[in-house]
Design the sequence.
């Protein structure tokens, strides 16, 4: 595995990201699937399930109600159950601190308020790899729960044998999901956005997925709320010379485990460290190594990359945490493995990808509420009405002006 010049990073990221969270191929494929689901509903969803997940699936297999979820959860092994409960408590404790609160301003002319209210029907995407991802059910379900949403629907691909993973079922019980829709990718996104005979449409879709699911979220975003574009996973590591190469190699390989277009980047100013890591990481892994002239330059490159995860590994690197503002999540210090954030740190692992961390954020409780302004005018309004009317008349809005003046 070769070490590259840091100047090549931007070009390489463009290639690895297909230009963003998804590329033209994923967009066009997702568009065809979304259009098909809008036309044919469950039949179109079932066709994709049979093609990619379970060849003998039937329409009745697509929806699992709460009672059946609870029954499947009974088979969750005790150790996994305990682990999920601890993760749930830590995630919930952090998200409880994010509860939105009303704000208001009061003066002689009245009271203005901004008031949050929970959303109604929410869908959480829970991808599937070689196994189910109950951790994602917690990450998407807990903030919805804390916000007080009316209904939570989860969507996750069907297994080859049609079984329901007991750990996933237990996680869905913990977050009080109403039902599980057993489809993934663009087809699931379209069904959730527009509804089918077996599935009522939702108000918002949250959670990560592959590039096709991400493209579909973007395509349906005019008709349903979405949180962010969360496509193939990505990691940028800035490492100082005091970081152990064996641990760094594990962090990079852990990222590669995500599959589906995931990649990892290591930047360091220490040539010895880069060579040592290169010797430990298989060449087939989607890992790229870069030499920086100094750590400050490396941190600026990580910030410019606006990656899903940034790991600042080692004491010198961790000291630059304030320099990285554009990232879904920043992990600072030699002990702060990104994997802790995936499971038990308490922060959310549903994060923006494809460079969208320049403007998007981690999934949080506020993603599950809407805000309403409330205006109550009172008292002596003559001066305020005159001021508003002057602006309205300048804009050519005669009746706006007269409407305010009528209250003075």
Sequence:
């Amino acid at each position: 595995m070769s070490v590259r010049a840091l100047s090549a990073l931007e070009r390489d990221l463009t290639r690895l990201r297909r230009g963003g969270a998804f590329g033209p191929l994923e967009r066009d494929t997702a568009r065809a699937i979304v259009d098909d689901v809008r036309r044919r509903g469950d039949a179109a969803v079932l066709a994709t399930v049979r093609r990619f997940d379970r060849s003998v699936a039937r329409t009745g297999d697509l929806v699992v109600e709460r009672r059946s979820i609870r029954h499947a959860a009974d088979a969750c092994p005790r150790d996994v159950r305990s682990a999920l409960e601890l993760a749930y408590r830590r995630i919930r404790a952090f998200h409880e601190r994010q509860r939105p609160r009303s704000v208001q301003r009061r003066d002689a002319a009245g009271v203005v308020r901004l008031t949050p209210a929970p959303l109604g029907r929410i869908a959480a995407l829970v991808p599937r790899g070689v196994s189910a991802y109950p951790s994602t059910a917690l990450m998407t379900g807990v903030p919805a729960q804390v916000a007080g949403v009316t209904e939570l629907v989860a969507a996750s691909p069907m297994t080859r044998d049609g079984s329901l993973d007991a750990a996933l079922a237990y996680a869905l019980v913990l977050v009080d999901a109403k039902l599980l829709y057993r489809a993934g990718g663009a087809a699931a996104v379209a069904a959730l956005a527009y509804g089918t005979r077996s599935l009522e449409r939702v108000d918002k879709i949250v959670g990560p997925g592959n590039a096709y699911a991400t493209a579909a979220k973007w395509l349906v975003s005019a008709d349903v709320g979405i949180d962010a574009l969360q496509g193939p996973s990505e990691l940028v590591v800035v490492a100082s010379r005091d970081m152990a190469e064996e641990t760094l190699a594990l962090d990079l390989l852990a990222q590669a485990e995500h599959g589906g277009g995931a990649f990892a980047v290591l930047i360091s100013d220490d040539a010895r460290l880069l060579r040592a890591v290169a010797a430990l990481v298989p060449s087939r892994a989607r890992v790229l190594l870069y030499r920086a002239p100094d750590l400050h330059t490396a941190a600026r490159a990580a910030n410019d990359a606006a990656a899903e995860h940034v790991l600042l590994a080692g004491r010198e690197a961790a000291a630059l945490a304030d320099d990285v503002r554009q990232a879904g999540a920043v992990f600072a210090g030699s002990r702060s493995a990104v994997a802790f954030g995936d499971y038990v740190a308490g922060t959310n692992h549903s994060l923006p990808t494809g460079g969208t961390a320049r403007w998007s954020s981690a999934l949080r409780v506020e993603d599950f509420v809407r805000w309403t302004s409330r205006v109550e005018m009172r008292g002596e309004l003559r001066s305020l009405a005159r001021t508003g009317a002057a602006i309205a008349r300048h804009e050519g809005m005669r009746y706006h002006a007269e409407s305010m003046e009528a209250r003075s």
In short: The two ends are 76 Å apart (CA to CA). The first strand starts at residue 3 and ends at 5. DSSP finds 16 helices and 15 strands in the chain. Residues 127 and 227 are 16 Å apart (CA to CA).
